[in-house]
Design brief:
By secondary structure, the chain is an alpha+beta fold. The chain folds into 3 domains: 5-75, no CATH class; 80-104, no CATH class; 113-154, no CATH class. 44% of the residues lie in helices and 11% in strands. It has 6 helices and 5 strands; from the N terminus they run βββαββααααα. The protein has helices at residues 37-50, 63-77, 83-95, 113-120, 127-134, 141-154, and strands at 5-10, 13-18, 30-31, 52-53, 60-61. The strands form 2 sheets. A 3-stranded antiparallel β-sheet has the order 1-2-3, with helices on one face. The chain is elongated. The protein starts with a strand and ends in an 8-residue tail after the last helix.
């Protein structure tokens, strides 16, 4: 039988890592706030039966709930989700009052920020440039070329493809 939790020390403070009984994986460590090993063991057992305190609220939550949430998150990391899946999640979270509003980005309809910026500074095709010129304001090709270069220079990330 596998142990339910493990201890380790960081800066003389004992931390506990609980083992998820469903997956067998260890959850992230949680500080017991004590340098005494026996007291840390007592706290770990108490949390296991009364509930593990949440990070910000400090309200205890049953270990089964925490294990289930971690299991769901692990499965989501390895699952390819669609826009419809995201809509189902947000609809559910809205129905139970966890979120008020959410915007789902549809790759086919929504333009990415980088595309929007590049299109805004395209002198030949930009609606922004056409509006400025139509209202008698000046904007030159050089300005558009410099702005396009700035977008490429400062917004470049490996995940964005030109």
């Amino acid at each position: 039988m596998a142990r339910r939790f493990y201890f380790y020390k960081r800066n003389q403070i004992y931390y506990v890592k609980y083992r998820n009984p469903f997956t067998g994986k260890l959850l992230p460590g949680k500080s017991t706030g004590t340098v005494d090993q026996e007291k840390a063991s007592y706290i770990a057992h108490k949390w296991l039966y009364e509930g593990i305190p949440e990070r910000r609220t400090r309200t205890p939550r049953k270990p089964e709930q925490i294990f289930t949430v971690y299991e769901i998150l692990e499965k989501l990391k390895h699952t390819e989700l669609t826009v419809n899946d995201a809509k189902r999640f947000t609809d559910y979270f809205k129905s139970i009052g966890l979120i008020k509003d959410a915007q789902i980005i549809n790759d086919e309809k929504t333009e990415s920020l980088i595309s929007f910026l590049l299109n805004s500074w395209d002198y030949q095709n930009s609606s922004y440039v056409k509006e400025k010129l139509a209202h008698g304001q000046s904007i030159g090709r050089r300005r558009c070329l410099d702005a396009t270069g700035a977008v490429k220079r400062y917004c470049f990330l490996k995940c964005w493809k030109w």
